[in-house]
Design brief:
Oligomer: single chain
Shape: elongated
Radius of gyration: 26 Å
Structural class: alpha+beta
Largest sheet: 8 strands, antiparallel
Number of strands: 11
Number of helices: 9
Strand order of the largest sheet: 4-5-3-2-1-6-7-8
Length: 335
């Protein structure tokens, strides 16, 4: 009887622990804290300002923010969101320029909380824009205290919304000030991997922690990746192709067994192998404009090259030509 009781108690503890873990899933899928480009005012940021104000930088930023503005407006309401991109766009400019912190729930909840530090005029503009955008089923909520405005939507992050508001009243800030970094972000990509835009990416998703830190006259970016399952990667002795790769280089990358971090690839199956299984090198040389070269060491390279050179055109050319993307051709005499 005692053994049966002990087994039942152990089973109950296991089930209880499992249910507790399932119920304790963090509702936040992504969060960030950014000081804002307007805070990059010291002499060491001169090069950053030059890059941000380049015509091509401005053009690219406008392209990206315009698309995001339309997409965000559409998520608020499929009908009311139409034509509201111009209402959202100035708000994105403010988020980029000013200090802000935010958190986002799973896509199915459409929940978020964002706190942004604004001037009096811009806070009034945000209030007016939110009132325009909030006239739908997915209404936005906002709360202002001093020069901070908290905007939120959905119920999944109500606890975090309350924490932002309480900390703002207590400390005059919804989050502690960043120390030594200009950007701190966490993204749980595995919980987003079913999104069509991410499902097509070749790499296994990981939980990423990103920090950008000023170092003298440049920035240092650190990314820590945590994978939900073990990655079968082991270091190998380097065999550097010093006779093949030489100056003047304009780019150079080297890696080992990147395939361990990649999803099963239909393309690799059709080719017959994944060339990223071993070490690889990718580089561009100044003497040959627009050309990028790649090197993958392998045994019996000449025979292997001849084999795939004869097979790949028949496997891929019909698709390439149908999409107007040229064709593969094997030059027998020159390999």
């Amino acid at each position: 009887m005692e053994k049966v009781f002990c087994k039942s108690l152990a089973l109950a503890l296991v089930i209880g622990t499992t249910l507790a873990c399932r119920g304790a899933v963090d509702p936040v899928v992504a969060r960030y804290h950014f000081v804002g480009t307007s805070q990059l005012t010291g002499p060491s940021y001169d090069h950053v300002r030059k890059i941000l104000t380049q015509p091509t930088s401005v053009e690219f930023r406008n392209l990206v923010l315009n698309r995001y503005a339309s997409a965000i407006a559409a998520t608020i309401s499929s009908t009311d969101g139409k034509g509201r991109g111009e209402v959202v766009r100035p708000l994105l400019d403010d988020l980029l320029a000013n200090e802000s912190a935010g958190a986002f729930g799973a896509p199915e909840t459409a929940s978020f909380v964002v706190a942004v530090r604004l001037s009096k005029d811009r806070a009034a503009a945000w209030t007016e824009a939110i009132q325009k955008l909030g006239q739908s089923a997915n209404a936005l909520r906002f709360e202002q205290d001093g020069d901070w405005l908290i905007v939120s939507r959905g119920d999944a992050l109500k606890d975090l919304e309350s924490k932002f508001a309480n900390d703002l009243k207590r400390n005059h800030r919804p989050v502690p000030a960043l120390k030594d970094t200009v950007l701190d972000a966490n993204i749980d990509w595995p919980r987003l991997e079913k999104l069509p835009a991410l499902a097509s990416l070749p790499f296994k998703p990981a939980v990423l922690h990103v920090q950008v830190t000023p170092k003298a006259d440049h920035f240092r970016t650190e990314i820590h990746a945590h994978y939900p399952h073990p990655i079968d990667w082991k270091a190998q002795p380097w065999k550097l192709p010093t006779d093949t790769i030489h100056d003047p280089l304009v780019s150079f990358s080297a890696g080992q067994n990147a395939a361990a971090f990649m999803k099963p690839s239909q393309l690799a199956e059709r080719i017959g192998e994944n060339p990223f299984t071993n070490e690889f090198f990718v580089w561009a040389n100044l003497s040959v404009p627009f050309e990028t070269a790649a090197l993958f060491p392998m045994k019996n390279a000449q025979r292997h090259l001849q084999s795939i050179g004869r097979e790949l055109p028949s496997k891929f050319n019909s698709e390439l030509e149908a999409n107007g993307e040229g064709q593969l051709k094997w030059l027998e005499k020159t390999n």
